[in-house]
Amino acid sequence: MVKQIPVSKRASQIEYAIRDVVVPATALEAEGHEIIKLNIGDPIAYPGLPTPSHMVEAFQAALGRGENGYSPSYGLPALRSAIAEDEISKGWACNPEDVYVCHGVTEALQIIFAATLEGGNKVLAPGPHYPPYMAYPQMYGASTIEYRLDAGDGWKVDFDDIEKKMDDNVRLLVMINPNNPTGNVASADEIDKLLSIAKKWPNCMIIADEIYDGLDFTGTQVSIASRSFEVPVLVLNGVSKVYYAPGWRIGYLAIHDPTSKMNDVRDGIERILRSRLCASTPAQMGYIAGLEGDRSWMKIHTSKVMKQRELCLQRISEIEGLEVQSPGGAFYMFVRLTDEKWANDDKKFVLDLLHEEHVLAVHGSGFSSELGRGHFRIVYLPNIDTLNIAFDRIDSFLTRHRQ
Ligand SMILES: Cc1ncc(COP(=O)(O)O)c(C=O)c1O
Q1: Mean pLDDT of the region 266-275
Q2: Is the beta carbon of 110 within 6 A of some atom in ligand 1?
Q3: How many Cβ atoms are within 10 Å of 185's Cβ, its own excluded?
Q4: pTM
Q5: What angle do CA 359, 364, 365 make, to 5 degrees?
């Protein structure tokens, strides 16, 4: 065998469970099997939830006008203003200069970590959590520590656990609200509690990942920045979920710095942004149309997603071997496996289910080896007929393996 050129340790350690399970699924597809995919939070992967046409037309029109050049590094001024207006409507004094347009929240995260973390620093993130929160900080010599979400109480934040884990090295305290993968929505009181803990640590900033904020079925979701009068908050959002355009790769970070202590961090963020040139120009034009146009279409999309959510809750309640805490937002369910065999090996459950029933979910331990164990995540974006077929297959799989 040819001796291989060494890969960096930081790259070889990266895992992204949501896409890692796609590898065996693709192999099965190559053999001619049709897979029901409940693994990826991409609304466009499922029929019936399209990107709104006025956004697509604005994107296309920008291409037609030849707007194919680089944009300013921090984003098109018109988009920064439209985003600032939107954040103001969520309750805090956001200026267009506080907004930085990125290639999705994912790029924003990489930039934030690069601008704030040194060796030995920590990111305190919910467990279970969206995998990049674990994968990226280690690239900067930092580490991610999980705080516990309570599996027995709707996946609510365990504030005692946060208090125990806070120290001077925690630079970033993450809240994903609504949460992926659990769907929990934190209340205003809970956000206030989080801020009161962070306030005690002068070098700590909050990451407010609000990419699912328009998919809140409780009516209680509030902007974290809108509640913070002292603690700095890095607000994250974009087109991927609420605007149903994840392939456009457009999102933003907005800095809420009520006591003006983020000047150096802001300078670092701006330097990184300039060095990576800019986000896609025509996609930014499409986002402007989404923010400035009529949003009544959102209600129609949301009501479809909610019906699918109801169906999943109903089916799960009827299947022996499954339990779920009803999600308040986003489009995921984090389902508990109650059969001991699977509770002890959720990855085997997912892989065996895939091979035997051609249904693809994501193992809970991929979202946290400790706090996600014994669970699997499904996406309730497929239509009702597809979801029913998937649950019929999950039910027969569980029954068969119990005999
Ligand atoms: C919590 C969370 N943040 C960020 C992202 C990715 O956002 P973007 O597509 O803007 O990079 C996802 C995607 O699933 C997510 O679940």
Answers
A1: 97
A2: no
A3: 26
A4: 0.95
A5: 125
